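User: Sequence recovery, please. Input:
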């Protein structure tokens, strides 16, 4: 068969990929947060001094869900570009930065490693920027839709830095809290 796919067939092929990538990435992100006890319900986190500009827990949940959806669509676009040059490197960068993303909540909320979480998010930001650039080289829209993620990582990195500065003995907040229980 030497037929060229119709636009409708190409759209369906992309959507089939997105039907897998979007829910998978949202599920992984959600699982990471839930399993590490992230968020405002975490008693250790409640005990920390937080910057004034920290968003509500509901805002965090909404923003991360939207960002994971955007990541899922970006990945579907790259997977859809089957013969694109640089696709393997772009996907490898994505997977590494996603694994770092999924590990951040356990580092911060689970292990109470505030300083490490700050440096972790900086490395994650560099990898995510590399991913966005690699995606841009393959499909411009895939790179563009990662820009909100990059901006949020900058904001999250700033919050992480401020929390680290406000809580130089952050792990002790957990110990103090556990003793009080």
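Assistant: Recovered sequence (181 residues):
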């Amino acid at each position: 068969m030497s037929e060229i796919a119709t636009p409708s067939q190409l759209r369906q092929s992309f959507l089939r990929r997105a039907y897998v990538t979007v829910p998978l990435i949202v599920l992984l992100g959600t699982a990471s947060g839930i399993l590490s006890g992230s968020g405002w319900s975490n008693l250790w986190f409640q005990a920390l001094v937080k910057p004034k500009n920290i968003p509500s827990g509901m805002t965090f949940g909404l923003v991360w869900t939207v960002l994971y959806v955007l990541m899922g669509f970006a990945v579907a676009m790259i997977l859809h570009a089957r013969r694109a040059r640089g696709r393997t490197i772009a996907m490898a960068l994505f997977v590494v930065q996603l694994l770092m993303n999924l590990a951040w909540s356990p580092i911060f909320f689970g292990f109470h490693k505030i300083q490490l979480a700050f440096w972790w998010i900086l490395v994650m930001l560099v990898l995510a920027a590399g991913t966005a650039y690699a995606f841009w080289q393959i499909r411009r829209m895939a790179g563009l839709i990662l820009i909100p993620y990059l901006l949020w990582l900058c904001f999250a990195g700033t919050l992480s830095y401020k929390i680290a500065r406000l809580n130089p003995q952050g792990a002790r907040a957990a110990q103090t809290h556990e003793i009080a229980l």
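The first helix runs from residue 7 to 35.
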